[in-house]
Amino acid sequence: MTSTSSISGKETPNQRLSRLKTQQQLCNKLLMDCVSLMEVYPDYTERLMAVMNQVESMMEQNSRLIARIENPA
After folding, report:
1. pTM for the whole structure
2. Is residue 6 assigned to a domain?
3. How many other C-beta atoms are found inside a 10 Å radius of the C-beta of residue 1?
4. C-alpha separations of 6 from 2, 9, 36, 42 in Å
């Protein structure tokens, strides 16, 4: 397994960007899975909507972080 940190033990900006983009892809998949689950288990729609809201909030935060890394001030 390759190291995911620099010598200082912290992520490099490129590593963080890669991790955040991977998280965004996984979040998109999770949202699609939630929609599919709502179709199969309509009794859980309210709970799944709550999960989706949390995932969307995390995605918004990740988007801001990605933009900050890609376009530093």
Report:
1. 0.79
2. no
3. 3
4. 11, 5, 40, 46
Closest CA to 55 of 25, 11, 19: 25
Residue the block writes with tokens 């949390």: 54
- Choose among 50, 52, 19: nearest CA to 35: 52
Segments in the chain below pLDDT 70: 1-8
Q: How many domains does the chain have?
A: 1
pLDDT at 24: 98
Kindly state the tokens that stand for 11. Answer: 């992520």
Which secondary structure element, helix H or strand E, spans residue 33, and what is its range? helix 13-40
Residue with tokens 């009794």: 43
Phi, psi of 9 (to 5 degrees): 90, 0
Does a structural domain hold residue 59?
yes
